[in-house]
Amino acid sequence: MVAPRTALSDVVGALPQAVNPLALSLNECPFPPLPAVRSALRACDEAANRYPEFLPQRLRSLIADHDGMAEEQVIVGAGATGVIMQVLHAVTSPGDTMVMAEPTFDGYPIFAQMARLRTVTIPLDAHGHHDLDAMAEAGKGARVVVVCRPHNPTGTIEPAIEIERLLTRLPEDTVVLLDEAYVEFLAAGQRIDGPNLVARFGNVVVVRTFSKAYGLAGLRIGYGFCAPDLGRQLWRMQLPFGIGLSAQVAVAASYDAEDQLRQRIRMIAAERRYLQTRLRALGVYSTDGQANFVYLPGGSLPWPEVFDGTGLQLRHYADGGVRITIGSRQSTRAVLGAVTAAA
Ligand SMILES: Cc1ncc(COP(=O)(O)O)c(C=O)c1O
């Protein structure tokens, strides 16, 4: 006899697959959570009848210790998304202006709409880089300026010195969101010393996430850090009971397993370089991506047609560009197979 389908089995059946070589549209980590993280998470089930902390003090302290900052400098949210919205709620009023690049992470136009902000968008150049001069100019009348480093969708990074130059040109009461969602993929020499930066610029909030390199997108954990004065202002907007019990456990377990995580990050970066090299050999230009994805601008091959029928889930852009998340070698082969057939 066939068991009746229940709503629960439907819901469980609809969960995304941890391993899916075709799922390359959201810049997720292609690996399931580390065994040590999974087993730590099981401990949360047993305490699910209890609320988490009223405000996520312990998680904040864990992150502050890990990144070498004072607790009052750190805020925590439901992913970087939650952190960005918290910042916008704390520092903007409806009608204020937010400056950002175009194209950028899909979330930003949505966040701006939710906070009822006016947006000024500054086009990236042909190689996917920010026009920081134009951003500095536009930022003079703005409440918030957003710079993603690496940028999404192009994966490019602006030199640290250029970011500092931008900061010196912006008014002190313009808040700068330095979005480092993909920072863990950068080599040490490419990174900005975040704690040092926020010590010198009181208007900068560095935003990070456990969704990408840490591979915990489904748990929704992100954080931001900034100078203590701004940190205290942002913490006042911290949602009571807003961070689930599992976040603290997952972060602690991830920090304990950092060697294994770093190995995974190296594998993803190596796979990205392999895909970039092979694309170049096929005569296909990709921007100088430094994160866990590559971006093929529009105007060369018709990317939607090239990948049509392959089953690959990719992020296509209005100008014809396509962003491809790095997955396994199987994913890379599927991408290269489609490009080879078209090139
Ligand atoms: C640049 C950038 N910022 C923020 C986010 C949001 O990440 P999350 O809310 O999962 O932490 C993303 C996700 O793709 C992103 O690419």
From TrEMBL:
Its cofactor is pyridoxal 5'-phosphate. The keyword tRNA processing does not apply. Keywords: Aminotransferase, Pyridoxal phosphate, Transferase. It is an enzyme of class 2 (transferase). It comes from the Bacteria. Residues 22-304 form the Aminotransferase class I/classII large domain. GO terms for molecular function: histidinol-phosphate transaminase activity. Its EC number is 2.6.1.9. Belongs to the class-II pyridoxal-phosphate-dependent aminotransferase family. This is Pyridoxal phosphate-dependent aminotransferase. It comes from Mycolicibacterium nivoides.
